[in-house]
Sequence to fold (443 residues):
Amino acid sequence: MSFFGVVRDVPRTVRLLAFGSFLNGVASFTFIYLFVYLTGARGLSVPQAGVVAGIGGLGLVAGNFTGGWFGDHYGHRRMLLTGALVSGAALAALPVLPVAAMYGVLPLAQYAAGVVRAANSALVAVFVPEGGRRQSFALVRAAGNAAFAVGPPLGALIAAHFSYGWLFVADGLGTLLFAGYAAAVLPARGTAHARPDRDPGAPGLWRELRARPAVLVLLAAILCVDLVYRQQYSTLPVFLAEHGHGDQFYGWLLAVNGGLILLLELPAAHMLRRRAPLSIVGTGLLLVGLGYAVLIPGAGVLSAVTMMAALTAGEILYKTTATAYVADQAPDHAQGRFQSLYAGASISGQVLAPPLGGALYAHAPGLLWPACAVLACGAGAAVLAARASRSDPAGLAGSGTHSPKASRARGTPSALSSVADAPRRLPPPPCDRTHRTPLPDPA
Fold:
């Protein structure tokens, strides 16, 4: 099936969400230039700028980890709109605030952005039935990658012709426009002010997670591998420079990575939709580890390109599949919290990777890439072992293959109203869904 054929198979609401994510992502370039702005226009020292940027990153991770709780209690649509409004207003006001206020406003803006990210994933999860989630999440990721290709050059243009302060105004206004767009394309259908129905006797989050040990293993593996994966944005350019490769070479590596993901991730998600998800995720994590292992002898052009090719292939395999797997395994009353746990784990490296990788590289540079390879390969092996230990011999539970019976049990939404915070109509029976074997996808 062609790229556009796959896109047509994705529900219309998800396509609208993906387009909104692209528009918002195009304007979300301030995090790239934040350090330059703090040390330049704001006159902060490097340590001071590091503290401000660091607490902003902590806010973003915290928003990802906790945003799903708000969505499960108050509605995912409502939290997406609230988070976008708070983040947009805070970012737009940041250039006129005193430096002291930035220590509170920036983490607030980043926290709200994390809530938006978690709510966006939860909306996809609650709207799309099992069988189409991999393609849907892949489309949203493709929109984000496309925006990242456009946003940084646009931000550089704004900074060159105006100032770095205007980047925050543009980012804030873009986020506010995204809130208006989302409110228009996700109509509340009369439920905007109603809380989702909650079963007071429903199991708590930890009990639900313990009933799904493979999900716990996956979350831990994603946490570990994100620490490794994001070394490409911190220690890798330093390593390449020390081996005679300039910024242009590093930029081309990232451009090839982004281009291949943009072109291949959505078709790959469609082609592999019937495959056992943990096998795909485990293989992807192994590829990330093997990619960094290539750098152990040194960083020639061939080894650097090979590393990035392996990293790209691994990312294509594991990121979308893992997101959809967590959504497939989540009980209806905790879908947002499951997505929050995954969203937080999948972005934790943004805060952890630079200080931990940098410290190891400074004290023992020869150990960095072996450590990355061991950590990522160990995570991949753990996921593959979790799949092998499952009771269903096919290992397909939660694989993303569509089960009409499972969809009816889960109360699969059939109208746009379900996206707009509407309660699910048929709650699932209190059973361990980890050991369910779905029927083949009739499509």
